[in-house]
Amino acid sequence: QQQVKQSPQSLIVQKGGISIINCAYENTAFDYFPWYQQFPGKGPALLIAIRPDVSEKKEGRFTISFNKSAKQFSLHIMDSQPGDSATYFCAATMDSNYQLIWGAGTKLIIKP
Amino acid sequence: GAGVSQSPRYKVAKRGQDVALRCDPISGHVSLFWYQQALGQGPEFLTYFQNEAQLDKSGLPSDRFFAERPEGSVSTLKIQRTQQEDSAVYLCASSSTFNYEQYFGPGTRLTVT
């Protein structure tokens, strides 16, 4: 019940296209859902996060869509650029426990 | 100030040696986390401090792992009698009291030979 399942494992998108990464969770007590971007040799960097009281949050080219009833959330990267090539992780946590529960990651490659 | 820093960035240890990994959190951040990240996988929680108090150490894989944060700032993760399965990147993150946003350091890559 603590798991966060992420798909796909890897994704190749043409420059200018839309990249979509999906995550699903079981624990309805989760109340904070961040996405992290990680480049090789670097630590994860917070990209965007959402709480379950909203269905969508947009920051620049990055959008989180959240479906509370389906217990799913997704990251959309619009106008994908080669510089977006990285590994993306979804995560979840709850108020009583700051421990982040992570998805397995998606390796995104944007082809020029 | 600056972001989270970790040292050393790389550590090679012979099996059975003890190692100490350091984390300098963002100044003023109350919460500090340690995670272990195996190659090609997501980070896994090890332990959590609020100031100097270790509130959760449920993720530490064995009693060979020990973490401390004696003055509520810098933290050290110590691994005794290292084993090959301890080879991983060890990530430190810190966050303020007011939200859940965790900021990560670059990690320490530990290789046990």
Assembly state (oligomeric): heterodimer
The chain-level mean pLDDT of chain A equals: 94
Strand residue percentage of chain A: over 45%
Helix percent of chain A reads under 10%
* Count of helical stretches of chain B: 0
Number of helices of chain A: 0
Specify Rg of chain A, calculated over alpha carbons: 13 Å
Assign a percent range to the helix content of chain B: under 10%
State the distance separating the first and last CA atoms of chain A: 39 Å
Order of helices and strands of chain B: EEEEEEEEEEE
Termini gap of chain B: 37 Å
Strand/helix succession of chain A: EEEEEEEEEEE
Described by the principal axes of the CA atoms, the overall outline of chain B is globular
Quick one: how many beta strands of chain B? 11
Keyphrases for this structure?
heterodimer, A: mainly beta, 5-stranded antiparallel sheet, B: 113 residues, mainly beta, 7-stranded mixed sheet
Could you explain how this protein is built, in words?
The complex is a heterodimer of chains A (112) and B (113). Chain A is an all-beta fold. Chain A contains no helices and eleven strands. Chain A has strands spanning 4-7, 10-14, 19-25, 33-38, 45-50, 56-59, 62-67, 72-77, 86-94, 97-102, 106-111. In chain A, strands 2, 4, 5, 9, 10 and 11 form a six-stranded mixed β-sheet that branches. Chain A has a five-stranded antiparallel β-sheet with strand order 1-3-8-7-6, with no helix packed on it. In chain A, strand 9 (86-94) and strand 10 form a beta hairpin. Chain A is globular. Chain A starts with a strand and ends with a strand. The model of chain A has no long low-confidence stretch (mean pLDDT 94). With 113 residues, chain B is mainly beta. Chain B has no helices and eleven strands. Chain B has strands at 5-7, 10-13, 19-24, 31-37, 44-50, 53-56, 65-68, 75-79, 88-95, 103-104, 108-112. In chain B, strands 2, 4, 5, 6, 9, 10 and 11 form a seven-stranded mixed β-sheet that branches. In chain B, strand 4 and strand 5 form a beta hairpin. Chain B is globular, with a radius of gyration of 13 Å. The interface between A and B is medium-sized, with 23 and 24 residues.
